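Minutes, project check-in
Item: structure for the 465-residue chain
Input as provided by the requester:
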Amino acid sequence: MKKRQIIIVIAFCISFISMIALSLFSMKRFTTYTVYSDQVDHTNLVIKKMLQAQLSLKDIDKAERGYMLTRDTMYLRFLNNAIDSVHKTLDDIGNITKSSASQQNNISLVKSSASLRIAAVRENIAYVDTTTTTPLSKYYFDSRELMKDFALRLRKMLEEENKVLDERYENEMFYQRLTTNTLIYLLIIFCIVTLILFFIMIKELRGRMRYQQELQSKVIDLKRSHDELKEIAYAASHDLQEPLRKIQVFSNMLLFRNMDNADKEIMTTLSRINNSANRMQLLISDLMSLTSLIKLDEERKPVDLNRILQFILIDVEEQIKEKKAIIDVQSLAIINGYENQLKLLFRAILDNALKFTRDDVVPEIILCCDIVVADELYSINPNLSNKKFYRITCKDNGIGFDNKFIDKMFHIFQRLHTDGAEYDGKGIGLAICKRIMANHEGYILAHGVPQKSAEFKMFFPMVVE
């Protein structure tokens, strides 16, 4: 499953990188196409201005001849407008061709030629106003030659600009085709990658559906097995009570009857039988407590742990006095849980701390609470490291334990001390604690230092209102 997820992630990354690369390439091509398109528009604008200058030049010629023939001042107004138009158009051409050195040189020559042409026209008009003869003046012939020079220079600029236009237009068409083809290829590749990823997702979805069905089937089998184990554990814990009671009764009867003249070895054997039966009764009782935790018949509600600890401290008051223990209970939290189970949990934790003490040290037990982001639970489940928990810590200065036995100590009937050791224990208390924490969607961790201390941390998930 993890391998499939890695494949899907890699496929998506490749697809994403490919789309980004192709998109950037398309944007670059489109930008280049836009640049050439703007250059073509710019060249067309220059050519348009040049054609306007040619028309203005023709208008000057028409106005000049019209005034020479008719002496009508209307032609003078028309002439002045045409002259102003020529100056303005040539200035515009000069401004929009600043990037071209050759065209700047050409426009300077054209402006000079236009100035000479306009000056010759004005001199010819002045001559016409001062004479009544019909022969044409030399100013008219000069202006005609200057007009030809102006037209020739302007035509040269126009030819050069047309040459640039052809080149830019060819580049524009090339990049237009390239951009269009790139977009088509991009669309095709995108469709292919999308289809591939779609089929991968469909395949993965089908695999997950099959896995879900198999998992559901296993869950049903596991629930059936779990129910059967509950029935077996419940029956064993109850059905063993009767023969165990008979063993205790008969052993006590034999002890009582042979109290006066019994053989010492027989009495020792009967006493061992009775002690073993009593121990077995306690084990069965604890087993019943553990199996009862599987059924969550109790209603879950807010529970004040401070109040729970007060009741438990009253119950273990004799043990505390006997051990001369110092109990420091700091302010605890109010959690959402099962009250009876929480009583059992903290009773087992305190019993454990009071049981495994050192003779040469006054027992000290500290219970405290804080709110944490449970980084300590990362090894159990990485997703838990970002969630908030109430962390309740119970620390003592007892005999401690070796941390290599942590996994063992939470298993049922697993003890760190042998039956002959001075510390009494049935090996089920911490298993009950672990079961209770599981019922509260919580976790319990332990840390010990041999002959120095033991520390238990209980993590209860915070309920978000």
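Outcome recorded: The radius of gyration is 52 Å.
No further action items on this chain.
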